[in-house]
Amino acid sequence: MRSEFEFLNNLRNDLNSSFIGDDCAVLPKDAKNDLLITADLLVEEIDFKVNWSSAKDIGHKALAVSISDVTAMGGTPEFALVSIGIPATIWESNFLDEFYEGFGALAAEFRVEIVGGDISRTPDKIVVDSIVLGKVLKGKAILRSTAKAGDLIYVTGALGSAAAGLKILQREGSPKELTKIWQRQLVERQLLPYPPNGTKIFEFATSMIDISDGLSSDLNHICGASGTGAKIYADKIPIDRNVYKCTDDLDDSLDLALNGGEDFELLFTVNPNNIASQVLEDFHLIGEITETPKIILIGRDDNSEILVPKGYTHF
């Protein structure tokens, strides 16, 4: 069966479009800037559950994932549109008011102006389409396709927390029943993701992507687009300390960090010859881009294996 990403690659070829394949489309804007556009679809029972998330939380998440896309291209978000389809029963509740409260609060924090959207009725599930437009200095968008052999691979922060939060929700049910602080912190990373801050990276990253599908899959996106491979080290991957409380197995913790997704940290590469090492002290070095088109994971015992992408896919 074809994968989601095979379909998108084939679609890009069929449409002969150079704009498909990154976190955002990059279009001409003016003499100084390029325009960034991204769209994200959130579907009830797939991307969120109403018995886990408040309407305000869903609104926050809908915008957060789109702002993250713009950041991953080295850009600044400016405008947002949001369309939402809801069942008739939801129309009679306060859901929409609270949804727009969450969406609007994050928009105000990031100085994003909400400029439009649509509201419609669906048979039984909530569907949200978030669109964000941003800007980036002309010719300076950071792509997935520009990593080079010898580049170092970094991530901006700890991984695995959102996936561990999802695991807790699947096991425990409503977040209201959680009593431990570490459980609540993990669940919050799942329900209320926060867009990453990439401004310190924009000047020197040679390629970049946000970690939404999972480190293994998103690194594979960079390598596939760049025609390269990679070598990463298990003991260098930063794992959120709360993840270890969610599972007693070190391999399970590593799996959540590699394949869980929705951390919305930034995965980026740099040319070590073009930057002083102290500039990167706030970030986590996990490996290196290689010429051979495969990703190698070097384990804690120094054994190596080919890393198969196992991050989230819709189909």
Give structural attributes:
globular; seven-stranded mixed beta sheet; 12 strands; five-stranded mixed beta sheet; alpha+beta; 315 residues; 31% helix
Helix/strand layout:
Elements: H1 4-15, E1 25-28, E2 33-43, H2 55-72, E3 76-86, H3 88-91, H4 95-109, E4 113-121, E5 127-137, E6 152-155, H5 161-172, H6 181-191, E7 205-210, H7 215-226, E8 229-233, H8 243-246, H9 250-259, E9 266-270, E10 284-290, E11 295-298, E12 304-306
Parallel strand pairs: 3-4, 8-11
Antiparallel strand pairs: 1-2, 2-5, 3-5, 6-9, 6-10, 7-9, 8-10, 11-12
Describe the structure.
With 315 residues, this protein is α+β, with helices and mostly antiparallel strands. The protein contains 9 helices and 12 strands. It has a 7-stranded mixed sheet with strand order 7-9-6-10-8-11-12. A 5-stranded mixed sheet has the order 1-2-5-3-4. A hairpin with a 5-residue loop joins strand 11 and strand 12. Helix 2 (55-72) runs parallel beside helix 4 and helix 5 crosses helix 6 (181-191). It is globular and about 60 Å long. The model has no long low-confidence stretch (mean pLDDT 93).
